[in-house]
Amino acid sequence: MVGWSNRRKILLFYRLAQRLSMETGVEHEVDHIVPLQGRLVSGLHVEANLQVILKTENRRKFNHFQPE
């Protein structure tokens, strides 16, 4: 985690994933949009690089990054 990341906002992503998992009964996880250790690029552990997705989607994505 870089020094300028917003830890409070990052924590909100993890809380949201937990809440969605509990409410829906389907596991959700916090995903790094740009993987931390990708083959082509590496992202950062900052709030702008996070999203909450289904656990199955996150496992399928692994460390791959598809630019839009």
Structure description:
Helix content is 37%, strand content 15%. The chain is of the alpha+beta class and 68 residues long. It has a two-stranded antiparallel ribbon. The radius of gyration is 12 Å and the shape is flat. The termini are far apart. The model has no long low-confidence stretch (mean pLDDT 90).
Looking at this protein, list some descriptive labels.
single chain; 68 residues; alpha+beta; two-stranded antiparallel ribbon; 15% strand; flat
What would a concise description of this structure say?
By secondary structure, the chain is an alpha+beta fold.
Order of helices and strands: HEEH
Helix content range of the residues, please? 25-40%
Termini distance?
25 Å
List the uncertain runs: none
User: For the report, how would you describe the main beta sheet?
Assistant: 2 strands, antiparallel
Taken as a percent bin, the fraction of beta residues is 5-15%
Q: What's the alpha carbon Rg, rounded to whole Å?
A: 12 Å
The strand line-up of the biggest sheet is 1-2
Shape: flat
What class do helices, strands and sheet pairing give?
Answer: alpha+beta
Strand runs, count: 2
Average per-residue pLDDT, rounded, comes to 90
Helix tally equals 2
Topology:
Elements: H1 7-24, E1 28-32, E2 50-54, H2 55-61
Antiparallel strand pairs: 1-2
